[in-house]
Specification:
- By secondary structure, this protein is mainly alpha-helical.
- About 80% of the residues lie in helices and about 0% in strands.
- It contains 13 helices and no strands.
- Helix 2 (about 40-65) packs antiparallel against helix 3 and helix 6 packs antiparallel against helix 13.
- The longest helix has about 45 residues, at about 305-350.
- It starts with a helix and ends with a helix.
Length: about 350
Amino acid sequence: MDVNYYKDGVLPFAALVMVEVCNVGMVTLSKAAMTSGMSNFSFVVYYNALGTFILFLYYIFHRYRSRGTPLTFSLLLKFFFLGLLGICLEQICAIAGIKYSSPTLAMAMGNLIPGFTFLLAVIFRMEKLALRSTSSQAKIIGTLVSISGAFVVTFYKGPPVFEASSSFKTSLQQNLAQMSNWVLGGLLLTITCLSSATWNIFQAAIVKEYPEKMTLVFFSCFFGTIQCAVISLIAERNVSSWALQSRIRVIAVIYGAISGSVIRNSVLAWCLQKKGPVYVALFKPLGTAIAVVMAIIFLGEIPHLGSMIGSIVIAFGFYSVIWGQAKERVIDGDSVHCLESSTQKTPLLQNT
């Protein structure tokens, strides 16, 4: 029983926390790489291509050891759409949104993913909704509050929370300020959140049909990389932005391939099968606090009032959704306990 508890409870929790830490590191490094002149399109193509190559080596090894479930055209088509949603659309919009805004805004907007995932889960009947129950009301209110907080973060930047010293204001921060376009970045990040939520729902359904997770991850990354390459070659024609000239660009690409393409996608596929899409999405707000600290330390970014207020509002909505889900689990547990008790008492009544 203890082994099952750690396998089904502690391990998914720890894995998703690790994913959020890796995501923040990737967001911070990608911002630094783009500040050095690297194109957001070339960055997405490079790290996904490297990640796909790593996954390909594992896929060949896995196929050599066991044949596995045969692939059909229908499955490959689903993998193609997974790549379109979770690799191409989500990551191109995410990296572009970070380029035009900041890592702090990106992680704050990521708190929208639980709300969007919950709405889609209700639409596709993966999550139950009873309007008269307090748990469902809490989840609905929490979702609406989170979306309201995202609007605050996007359309109200506000004054800086504190003034940095002259030594703290580096040339890197000046470049960040020149690249900043808060509203456009917020809108791109909103598209990212919606795409990520749809990807969560879609992949959770496919994992039930095709349980070989690493094959699923490889083909979705493979198709997504090709899609990103086609779009990037059309959108970015400046040759210098494709060059890996500086050390920070190389580090960002390698880190993105390992943490983003390999670790993140593999862990999410496993957790989606184990715990479902809503549980996976609920870990997004954890990255906000980590992103604020890392952006201040490594990028010299100063947090603004709008980001702080919006993040607090989003967090409040997020924990309202969590409270609603926790209460539903308690109610379901009591119902199961009562059902077991009644079934145990029935034979005694019949004997009497």
